[in-house]
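Hi C.,

You asked whether I'd gotten around to modeling the 117-residue construct. I have! Everything is below, sequence then structure, no commentary in between.
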Amino acid sequence: MCQVEFELARAALKQLKGPVSEQEKLLVYGLYKQATQGDCDIPAPPASDVKARAKWEAWGANKGMSKMDAMRGYAARVEELTKKEVGGMEREQRGVQDGRHEGPRGQSEEMRKKAAG
């Protein structure tokens, strides 16, 4: 893995349009910080600052990991997120083409209309 691949993964992450869970965001954040700065060497934020504490813990979870391994992990995680988003878009596109566009709960528009009477 080289710096170029890492930078490409960074750019790909910025292009994601779908929702990313907070857990996934923290995993990616921790790997990014490890890849760019190495082991976490800042004091723990107060527990009352929940967001900062979660980010600190996500970074600290990678302690001892080499920068190169963190870059690889980061790129792999971003690739998974990208595939998940592309797969979701393809499923939705197939549903639209078949006239079975699925709504937010996976129920097709056709089924909702039938249920509504």
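If it helps when you're writing up: Residues 101-108 have pLDDT under 50 and may be disordered.

Thanks,
B.
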